[in-house]
Amino acid sequence: MLKLLVAVALLAVVAADSCLHCICLHESGCKPLGCHMDVGSLSCGYYQIKLPYYEDCGQPGKKSGESTETAWKRCAAEYSCSTTCVQNYFKRYERDCAGKGFGTCEQMSRIHNGGPSGCSYASTAGYWAAIHKCCGCK
């Protein structure tokens, strides 16, 4: 029984990693792109993170005395930091997808693309379709 639980937990981690990798590929080719205008504001880095998203994810990697804007741009350009930000953002808002019958990757994708209520927006379905095509995950 313990082996089964460990196997299930390992599969969940692999699926989450695959999902994150596909989001990264979709957003930037998984490269540390600079900042670019997107829907009226700057999006930066591996996951094309916007400043309010960075603030909502808890501002990982922010150094003492560093401005939030500087920390955001630096974090977005660092794979580990930006991945932590995406994971934190999802943990913060995943409850907003509860009861919708979506798998974890779909929730993560739609929240990443559409914000805290992304699971409720039909406009995020196309984004999810692109991520699903990459990873085949739920």
Automatic annotation (TrEMBL):
SUPFAM superfamilies xrefs: Lysozyme-like
Cystine bridges: C19-C105, C22-C137, C24-C30, C35-C44, C57-C85, C75-C81
Entry keyword set: Antibiotic, Antimicrobial, Bacteriolytic enzyme, Disulfide bond, Glycosidase, Hydrolase, Signal
Catalytic activity: Hydrolysis of (1->4)-beta-linkages between N-acetylmuramic acid and N-acetyl-D-glucosamine residues in a peptidoglycan and between N-acetyl-D-glucosamine residues in chitodextrins
Keyword presence, Metal-binding: no
N-terminal signal peptide: 1-16
Molecular function GO terms recorded: lysozyme activity
GO biological process: defense response to Gram-positive bacterium; killing of cells of another organism
EC number annotated for this UniProt entry: 3.2.1.17
Active-site positions on this chain: E27 (proton donor), D38 (nucleophile)
UniProt-listed Pfam families: Destabilase
PANTHER family: DESTABILASE-RELATED, INVERTEBRATE-TYPE LYSOZYME 2-RELATED
UniProt name for this protein: lysozyme
Species name: Mesorhabditis spiculigera
